[in-house]
């Protein structure tokens, strides 16, 4: 295939990839919204809500290293398609169960575990295939469009979920998700995952699984950026559990926010992500991405602490709604500032032969402490005042990034900053 046709196909991939992600993410998030609201209203317990979050995290955390082996040794396209088909079957099974026996927490938790695995395989396979789907010059655009599709879905799905919740039955939510999943499969089947890739899984030397996983870990140890990102992700995601459990618990249980308003605040988070994603599609590639991500994480920590103000001060009800809209917009922008620059540089620096293993190990480490965090915070929110839990966690959240991404670490990861500083020093005239 000549270069012009490859670039044309890459453009097709950009939009097909974006639309596929938009459709599947919309269905998944409408489902997640409905299930979360169902659990909280049925049980009124932060622990039960946290248990479902654990079912979304623990299976993918355990299975991610094994997924990396399969993604690096077999067809990534087939893995994406089979994962999406498995998602459809899982939702279909829950639909049949809900119609015949009614929803139960056990059925919801089981489905959440299956969806966790399928989304992990699909997500890591897609992340590992970006450089095969599009040309090098449009990697940042591809990552930003991917984030935009997720943001569009996040904006629309909570609003739709909030409007529909209580007005339609749970099977309707499940049918929406199934339909979205089927459409995503049809789009993914038209994509060429190795258009720009020099990797041919058929020609790769197949290592035993454990040897392959050890090779991936050895490769990561040679990359200072990867090691830094792994440690940051491990601890930051643990303390972010305070927000993941606490935000819904505070708004729904403590402040008694209506489902429609809660859905709109969730949509505001996605709107913030969308605004920054649009910005990243048109701007040049970020220099010193770790430094940019550091300030994004600090911003997230400050916003986390601000979430509890309505619990401490007296707010009018309408003012509370507007306040959380603003905070969620800010948190969404900080999230994109944190993630997009790092993901672009990882796409370019990681050898294609190792991407499945590297991204799966990154995912494992990012989520390794999250189940523990969910259990801990689910218990803490049921026992202690919510505002103190969030304030202390926010302080620890910011402290972690200040230590792990201190200036000396950033200069080691980005040695070009030392050269730039040296040039600037030479330009400064010496004093007489």
UniProtKB/TrEMBL annotation:
CDD domains with a match to the protein in the record: MFS_MefA_like (cd06173)
A Pfam match: MFS_3
Swiss-Prot/TrEMBL keywords: Cell membrane, Membrane, Transmembrane, Transmembrane helix, Transport
Record bears the keyword DNA-binding: no
TM helices/strands, residue ranges: 12-32, 79-100, 106-127, 148-168, 174-196, 217-242, 262-282, 294-315, 321-346, 358-380, 386-405
Database matches in SUPFAM superfamilies: MFS general substrate transporter (SSF103473)
Name under which the protein is recorded: MFS transporter
Membrane topology note: Multi-pass membrane protein
Keyword Membrane listed: yes
Compartments where located: Cell membrane
């Amino acid at each position: 295939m000549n270069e012009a046709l490859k670039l044309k196909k890459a453009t097709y991939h950009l939009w097909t990839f974006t639309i596929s992600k938009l459709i599947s993410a919309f269905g998944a998030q409408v489902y997640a919204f409905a299930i979360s609201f169902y659990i909280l209203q049925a049980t009124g317990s932060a622990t039960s809500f946290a248990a479902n979050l654990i079912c979304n995290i623990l299976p993918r955390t355990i299975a991610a290293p094994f997924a990396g082996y399969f993604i690096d040794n077999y067809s990534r396209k087939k893995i994406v398609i089979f994962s999406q088909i498995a998602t459809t079957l899982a939702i279909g099974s829950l639909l049949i169960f809900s119609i015949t026996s009614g929803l139960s927490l056990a059925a919801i938790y089981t489905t959440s575990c299956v969806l966790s695995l399928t989304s992990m395989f699909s997500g890591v396979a897609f992340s590992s295939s970006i450089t095969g789907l599009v040309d090098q010059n449009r990697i940042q655009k591809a990552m930003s469009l991917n984030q935009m599709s997720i943001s569009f879905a996040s904006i629309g799905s909570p609003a739709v979920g909030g409007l529909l919740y209580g007005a339609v039955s749970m099977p309707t939510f499940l049918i929406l998700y199934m339909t979205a999943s089927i459409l995503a499969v049809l789009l993914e089947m038209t994509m060429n995952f190795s258009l720009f890739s020099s990797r041919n899984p058929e020609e790769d030397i197949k290592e035993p699984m454990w040897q392959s996983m050890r090779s991936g870990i050895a490769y990561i140890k040679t990359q200072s950026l990867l090691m830094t990102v792994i440690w940051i992700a491990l601890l930051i995601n643990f303390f972010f559990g305070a927000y993941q459990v606490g935000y819904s618990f505070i708004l729904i249980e403590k402040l008694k926010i209506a489902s429609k308003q809660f859905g709109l605040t969730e949509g505001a988070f996605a709107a913030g992500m969308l605004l920054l994603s649009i910005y990243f599609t048109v701007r040049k590639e970020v220099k010193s991405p770790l430094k940019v991500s550091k300030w994004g994480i600090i911003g997230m920590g400050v916003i986390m602490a601000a979430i509890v103000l309505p619990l401490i001060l007296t707010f009018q009800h309408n003012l509370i709604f507007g306040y959380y809209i603003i905070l969620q917009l800010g948190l969404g922008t900080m999230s994109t500032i944190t993630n997009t620059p790092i993901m672009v540089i990882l796409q370019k620096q990681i050898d294609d032969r190792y991407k499945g293993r590297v991204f799966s190990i990154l995912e494992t480490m990012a989520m390794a402490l999250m189940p523990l965090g969910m259990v801990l915070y689910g218990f803490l929110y049921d026992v202690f005042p919510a505002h103190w839990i969030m304030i202390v966690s926010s302080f620890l959240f910011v402290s972690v990034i200040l230590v792990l991404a201190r200036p000396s670490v950033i200069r080691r990861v980005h040695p070009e900053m030392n050269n730039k500083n040296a040039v600037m020093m030479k330009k400064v005239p010496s004093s007489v």
